[in-house]
Automatic annotation (TrEMBL):
Gene: cmk
Catalytic activity, as annotated: CMP + ATP = CDP + ADP; dCMP + ATP = dCDP + ADP
Cited HAMAP family: Cytidyl_kinase_type1 (MF_00238)
EC number: 2.7.4.25
Record: residues binding ATP: G10, P11, A12, A13, A14, G15, K16, S17, T18
Keywords: ATP-binding, Cytoplasm, Kinase, Nucleotide-binding, Transferase
Domain Cytidylate kinase: 6-215
Top-rank EC class of the record's enzyme: transferase
Protein name in UniProt: Cytidylate kinase
Length: 222
């Protein structure tokens, strides 16, 4: 039985991780959140006083960075040098740090094999920005999940509110727009829809509807 890969790409806060987790659970596949890897490198740069936008500085850190993914009760945790940084990398300021380091070619090269290794041995639902285009171009099913920037900012705000954090809607919207721009305009592995990806705009769809639509597509393909 060869492992099966499902790729989910799309802009920030389109609901990729939530639907990917659900889809993976329903299919019995492993969920791999690749954004967490870029966040871990951004966090590492930040905590060592290196500007995440300084490519030479970040590149120099790479040989000493040891990132590992571990699953605890089916939930992905990120270890940086053996330390669990899963909570720290979710801080709002780490989103932009991740976006900045992700434009550095050496960072992308460094993370490529790590991501591919998962799909070699396990059936995966992997989400990110370049999964269907670069990381797993042979994925069995590819999705490009998107929603309007306003709706994405609104959802992100609710998510933070549930964690008891108050964040400004306009600041979130501006950050989402800036990240979308950076992610889709970088020279290497920019965020683009793969030609063979199924595009789902879920601006007016519920989570359940989105997952059902995706599951339907997957079942039709497998
Ligand atoms: O998905 P998440 O918002 O956690 O990703 C954080 C940042 O990591 C993105 O804004 C993007 O710049 C980068 N990223 C990437 N390629 C991926 C996943 C994330 O460039 N496959």
């Amino acid at each position: 039985n060869r492992p099966i890969a499902i790729a989910i790409d799309g802009p920030a806060a389109a609901g990729k991780s939530t639907v990917a987790r659900r889809l993976a659970a329903e299919l019995g596949f492993l969920y791999v959140d690749t954004g967490a890897l870029y966040r871990a490198i951004g966090y590492c740069a930040h905590s060592r006083g290196v500007d995440p936008g300084d490519s030479a500085g970040v590149e120099k850190l790479l040989p000493d960075i040891h990132i590992a993914i571990k699953y605890v009760g089916g939930v992905q945790r990120i270890l940086l040098g053996g330390k669990d940084v899963s909570e720290e990398i979710r801080l709002p300021e780490m989103s932009m740090a991740a976006s900045k380091v992700s434009a550095i070619p050496a960072v992308r090269a460094y993370l490529l094999e790590l991501q591919r290794d998962f799909a070699r041995t396990e059936s995966v639902v992997m989400d990110g920005r370049d999964i269907g285009t670069v990381v797993l171009p042979g994925a069995a099913v590819k999705f490009f999940l998107t929603a309007s920037p306003e709706e994405r900012a609104r959802r992100r705000m609710l998510e933070f509110a549930q964690k008891g954090r108050k964040v400004d809607y306009n600041a979130l919207l501006a950050e989402i727009r800036e990240r979308d721009y950076n992610d889709s305009h970088r020279a290497i592995a920019p965020l683009v829809q793969a030609p063979d990806a199924v595009r789902i705009d879920n601006t007016a769809m519920t989570l359940e509807e989105t997952v059902a639509a995706m599951k339907h597509r997957v079942e039709g393909k497998l």
